[in-house]
Specification:
Elements lengths: L1 H29 L7 H19 L2 H25 L4 H19 L25 H5 L4 H19 L1 H11 L1 H6 L4 H27 L11 H11 L4 H23 L6 H20 L2 H7 L12
């Protein structure tokens, strides 16, 4: 029972960083912009967050630094693809490669460094409930913030006027422009907001999830988050469910190793990525379902007349 409690708690922790990045990418794609640079954004934010936490001792400042770096890099990407109309896919891949190399260069100084003792968090009263308490109510505050963010984003997209405008920009930017909405500025704001969430996810990795800096430590999580938006059919609450599933698969490898399961560690490490491929193949087999849920102008440039 104790091992299962630990597995659930670890799955929530791992799912949080995927959910944060996926929610950010969902905002981008709801506005009609595909950002393949999440991996690079998260890497740069991870080193920025770790460096800030190392020098200041403040996790809050570290998260703010990660969000700022993510927003700025995403803003640069937005200027390239929204105003200069460069190819979104090529620019996103370039951002991912840039982030990988830049973070490795900047992070050389911090490779052997460690952060101070980490705080333990718990929800008073609820954390003492047998089984459920240790599994659900002894998480970092960012875990609960992510759940609240997903709920707020769902309300924003489907119940608020600005959210409806954002969705309109992703569905038909020409119609939104004809109604007088500043399509390019809305898209840039969405891209920067999404970049900030990817940055928060990256900082969470280096400050909380694995409180250290190692080159390439995001290890494909940005790509899994990108796949998660499709898996969730661009719905914020489904992102939470999908992130929990992927978090569980990620942590399952360590659980199985701890239980003495005789499987090659390399195979166990492949599980999250095999699950990602399997889910994408399953969803892609129903093209009509994808078209019905995908923003109609996703990945398409907009040229105002």
């Amino acid at each position: 029972m104790e091992s299962m409690v630990l597995l659930i708690a670890a799955s929530l922790n791992a799912g949080t960083l995927l959910a944060l990045a996926a929610l950010g990418l969902l905002i981008n794609e709801r506005a009609g912009v595909v950002n393949l640079g999440a991996e690079g954004l998260m890497l740069v934010a991870a080193v920025a967050g770790f460096a800030t936490a190392f020098h200041t001792g403040s996790d809050s400042l570290a998260f703010a630094a990660g969000m700022l770096v993510g927003a700025l890099l995403a803003g640069l990407f937005g200027l390239l693809v929204i105003w200069l109309n460069t190819n979104q896919y090529a620019a996103g891949l370039a951002l991912s490669l840039f982030g990988s190399g830049f973070s490795a260069f900047v992070g050389l100084r911090y490779t052997q460094e460690k952060l101070g003792p980490r705080m333990n968090f718990s929800v008073p009263g609820l954390s003492d409930i047998p089984v459920i308490g240790p599994a659900l109510f002894r998480q970092h505050p960012v875990v609960y913030l992510t759940v609240a963010l997903a709920v707020a984003l769902a309300w924003f997209l489907y119940r608020s006027r600005p959210g409806l405008i954002l969705r309109a920009v992703g569905e038909s930017p020409e119609s939104a422009h004809a109604l007088g909405y500043p399509v390019r500025r809305i898209r840039l704001a969405a891209v920067m907001a999404g970049g900030a969430l990817c940055g928060l996810a990256g900082a969470y990795v280096s400050v909380v999830y694995t409180p250290l800096w190692v080159e390439g430590m995001i290890a494909g999580k940005g790509w899994i988050a990108l796949a998660l938006t499709t898996f969730a059919t661009w719905r914020p609450l489904r992102v939470l469910a999908g992130a929990g599933l992927f978090g569980f698969v990620t942590m399952l490898q360590f659980h199985l190793q701890g239980q003495g399961v005789q499987l090659a560690s390399q195979f166990l490490s492949m599980l999250p990525y095999l699950a990602t491929i399997g889910v994408l193949v399953l969803i892609s087999s129903n093209a009509a379902f994808i078209r019905a849920n995908m923003p109609a102008s996703l990945g398409k440039p907009f040229f105002p007349g």
